[in-house]
Write a structure and sequence with these properties.
By secondary structure, the chain is mainly alpha-helical. It is built from 5 helices and no strands.
């Protein structure tokens, strides 16, 4: 297995693959929500009741759609990476709470929980060398 240790030199490329893949999927899921208009935003935003927020569901649904669609793009390019990760963690916590609260159980919430954990890890790791935020 020593030959696999040479992959350590490609950590930044691995982060790029992760960022592009996750970002593309969040754009794919977020863009239709963003284009869905106030009715859909209200439905999405009503999920905040599972975390104790019961006011302005249209606003919260719009914000969730923006975070998914625009956040996906910002993940890909690596711009304001850590704040975007934090917003996506919050988004995924609300999504997981919504699944759990509506009776979907852990199986229904698992995708949102998985994504929240990935974004938590990325929050600490950073975007890597191949990003607009690189230093």
């Amino acid at each position: 297995m020593a030959y696999l240790s040479k992959l350590n030199q490609y950590k930044d490329f691995g982060l790029l693959i992760t960022r592009v893949g996750l970002g593309a999927m969040f754009i794919y899921h977020g863009y239709p929500k963003l284009m869905g208009g106030p009715h859909l935003w209200g439905e999405i935003g009503s999920a905040t009741k599972y975390v104790g927020i019961t006011f302005a569901p249209v606003f919260w649904g719009f914000m969730a759609a923006i975070v998914e669609a625009l956040g996906g793009f910002l993940l890909i390019v690596g711009l304001v990476f850590r704040p975007v990760c934090l917003l996506l963690i919050i988004n995924m916590i609300v999504a997981a709470a919504s699944h759990l609260g509506s009776g979907d159980g852990l199986m229904g919430a698992s995708h949102a929980i998985d994504d929240a954990l990935i974004f938590a890890g990325l929050l600490f790791i950073g975007p890597g060398r191949y990003s607009v935020d690189k230093k």
